[in-house]
Automatic annotation (TrEMBL):
InterPro entries: DUF3305 (IPR021736). Residues 183-192 have a biased composition (Basic and acidic residues). This is Molybdopterin-guanine dinucleotide biosynthesis protein A. Residues 182-209 are annotated as: Disordered.
């Protein structure tokens, strides 16, 4: 299943991606976590295919945080012609050098997680193995462009949005990145009725007298 092009701003500037941890920590005057992780389960759904050229139609139905571990794909539902499989855990990793990619994800107004599956090389059911999950739309686009396996954009759970927002807010910013956001004319969308993590005026604590 291909989901088309992913809409997001331009790629992370090279000078930002190359900024070292020590440089950013010195600028921010604090310890910086290189990465944070959260475990998820991936739910894969099988239905009879409407096409005469295939027996089954497959899609990634959802990602679920903090589910019990499975041994490969485990059937969690089988009825009415629909079978659902769960595979867990798979780690969502946020890395300190990819801040702008995650920011771009939030700025779409629909924060997402992309689940990525590869085709199995040997016949089995399901015919996919998990490549991984990501909150980086650029990584997902690269896999999508390969035209193999399954890539699905899924709604990010609200608690995961809050977790990612907290991590982003804790990181020092590269000067070019901060200036780019402050120079924007448009107002960024609010997420769940709250002030965006990064607004054109900078972080909330930077604006307080």
């Amino acid at each position: 299943m291909r989901t088309g092009r992913i809409a997001f701003p331009s790629r992370v500037p090279q000078n930002y991606a190359d900024t070292t941890l020590s440089d950013r920590a010195l600028r921010g005057g604090c310890h910086v976590q290189r990465e944070v992780i959260a475990p998820f389960g991936i739910v894969l759904e099988r239905r009879p295919s409407p096409s005469k050229w295939a027996d089954w139609s497959w899609r990634i139905a959802e990602v679920i945080p903090d589910v019990p571990a499975t041994d490969g794909w485990a059937v969690i539902h089988d009825g009415d012609g629909v079978t659902r499989y769960l595979s867990a855990p798979h780690m969502l990793v946020l890395h300190h050098k990819m801040v702008e990619a995650y920011d771009a994800n939030i700025e779409t107004g629909s924060p997402s997680i992309w689940a990525m599956l590869d085709d199995e090389v040997t016949p089995q059911m399901p015919p996919y193995r998990v490549r991984g999950i990501t909150a980086d739309p650029y990584e997902a686009q690269g896999v999508l462009d390969s035209a193999a396996g399954l890539v699905e954009r899924l709604a990010m759970p609200r608690e995961t949005v809050a977790w990612m927002a907290q991590y982003l807010a804790s990181l020092p910013e590269a000067p070019a990145f901060r200036k780019r956001r402050r120079d924007r004319v448009e107002t960024e969308k609010q997420i769940f009725g709250k002030e965006p993590i990064f607004s054109p005026l900078g972080r909330r604590e930077e604006r307080e007298p």
